[in-house]
Amino acid sequence: MLFCEDLSVSTPPHNPISFGTTGRPRARGLGLPLPGTPGPLNAITDVPGIEVGMTTVVEGSGVRTGVTAVLPRARGHLLHPVWSGMFSLNGNGEMTGSHWIRDGGWFTGPITITNTFSVGLAHHATLRWMAKTFPQALADNTWLLPVAAETYDGWLNDIAGQHVTEAHVLAAIDAARPGPVAEGNVGGGTGMICYEFKGGTGTASRRFRADCSEFTMGALVQANHGLREWLTVCGARVGEKMPENTVWPRETGSIIVVLATDAPLIPTQLERLARRASIGIGRGGTPSGNNSGDIFLAFSTANDPGPLPEKPRLHFDALGNETLDAVFLAAVECVEEAVLNVLIAAETMTGKNGRRVDALDHDRLLALIGPKK
What we know:
Distance between the termini: 46 Å
Number of strands: 14
Helix content: 10-25%
Structural class: alpha+beta
CATH architecture: 4-Layer Sandwich
CATH class: Alpha Beta
Strand order of the largest sheet: 4-3-12-11-10-9
Order of helices and strands: EEEHEEHHEHEEEEEHHEHEEH
Radius of gyration: 19 Å
CATH superfamily: L-amino peptidase D-ALA esterase/amidase
């Protein structure tokens, strides 16, 4: 069994905007002509206060899975609600806590992402972690409904064996740190497939201005979606020109997107922001197939209301709706780039029953896109 709890804190040997924690190039490191201005890490952890941790589980020839944890606030403040919104583009998947996010506009605690058959365990283990971290608050009947989400890794992973344990989830949460975030075959994305190439975990960020102030948008994705023929990179339909070694006769995957920002937004605006993840993944070519669970969460670290229980009166500072175009564009751009970072970071994997999923060939991709203009 391989634990990779410290992947989020590895020191990259090159500029982290363009190179990953292992030194391999990211989308910008390949020279792909991507718009916008990333933050210094080009990761969701560019949003102040956010930490990411992972546990990667690889055993024998058939276990290829793991857990990714995102802490939206400092550990001591995880009982402070985080204002949020969610959107399900296609609902063949699960994200716990989403009903309350739609009604109440907030969630508390770590976000965990894993495989489909382990989402309940991730929810349970997150509650265990919160009870251990905040024993008095939970003894006083503090109400919690963690966010746990999933995508299906059963092609490469013995998913029915349910190899993710409570210890794996706790380790991912405990490992969460600021700094560069590992990508590709790591964490919850270990056994995932994207456009019938090896998929997994990816992230990106954008700096943007709204109302004369500068803010940060970050995205983290667990990408397990798309058919090869759909794949579009920087406007070029490259997938149909790489038809070899495909996996599916029809789409049977999913994608989870977590969007984070320090821009002050109210829950209805955050729900609108979550919808824009649809455009970000759409730039990659997916129409969001019938069998895909394409579920998106957006949250803001601004307007901390203090710890639960919720106060009788709340006060918000929020951007006006007329300023939101820059916010929406930042979300679209960093979701698109996070998916590309998955495809470029992921490595060829052989898993359950000897099944092999190839990584995207970087040189071939660049040849199909053509020279930069």
